[in-house]
Amino acid sequence: MTVTANIGRSLSDDRRKMSDEAFITLLVASVAVGLFLFASLLVPNFFQLLNMLNLVTNNWAVISLGIGVSFLLVSGNFDLSVGGIVALSGVLSVWFAQATGGANALSTGLGLPYWLAITCALGGALAIGALNALFVVKFRIPSIIVTLGTMMLARGIAQVVTQGSQRNTNLPDEFGVLGNMTMFDTSVKLPVAFMLILLLIAIFIERKTVFGRLTYWIGANPIAASLSGIDKEKHVTYLYLFSSLIAGIVGILLASEFKSGYSNRGTLMEFDALVIALLGGVAIAGGFGSVVGMFFGAVILAIVTSAATGMVLSPDWQYILKAIAVFLAIVTQTWALARRNR
Predict the structure, then answer these.
(1) CA distance linking residue 240 with residue 81, whole number of Å
(2) pTM of the model
(3) Whole-angstrom Cα distance, residue 65 to residue 72?
(4) In this predicted model, what pLDDT tens digit does every residue of 173-229 receive, in sequence order?
(5) Is there a domain that residue 5 lies in?
(6) Range of 200's domain?
């Protein structure tokens, strides 16, 4: 009798949680639309179809990273290493693909075929993800500390490989193809298509698969999840590998787009990915949030940044506006949920 009652309460809580997520997602989407209309009043020529599309396409990298970061946040974990992985994978893909016998150290690489170079670069990204999982899952060190350390480790390796500069010479012709390839005779580039496909896959996993539901259960109540027989350690390990794989692909695509491996590429991307997740209603304590909400959070951040640029505000003011947007979003979401569940 008690077990039946507990199961009933659990299902009721799950339904309420899902409805709350839909409510927050609708709220975030409404804020994004309202903010866009408000910015259109302040910034000349802001209200244009091309500008609407650019808000998404110009931020494909951060949105892609936000998917992996959001899944980990929902599970109750952080991933601040993604920016470092972007730099590392891009630098490694260049170094591995550069021909041997260059004029200097920065133009000399390992001379691997391009497909093998990007495969090995992805291996480097996954190694950082595995390191995250090892320390978080096995040694139970707080994820925010671990991933902050691996972010610096990944970027440090990139700095060593590039000697604090960048590698952009002695590359094969096919190196710049992936990052600049357009799809189906349109202006949509492969990286943007990658982001859209990844977003659809993430939504499907989140809403239609057992893996997605387990992510929520682990974040909402990790002790109960373990007592229910869920292999929490394996699940979180998969999430870290998934996030690092996304970051690795993003780094390779950026390196291909600019035909260079730059050790400072991806700087602060980990924080932007975290910000758009929080703006989108993903709970920092885990167990709540959605990828769709994260997407609209990215739109909000893009509108704030683009409007600030259009108003010719300095980068310092842009940081302040981002901070205000985050605080207002968290306070508004908390207030709205409190009133809704009163």
Answers:
(1) 10
(2) 0.92
(3) 11
(4) 999 999 999 988 888 999 999 999 999 999 999 999 999 999 999 999 998 998 889
(5) no
(6) 13-340
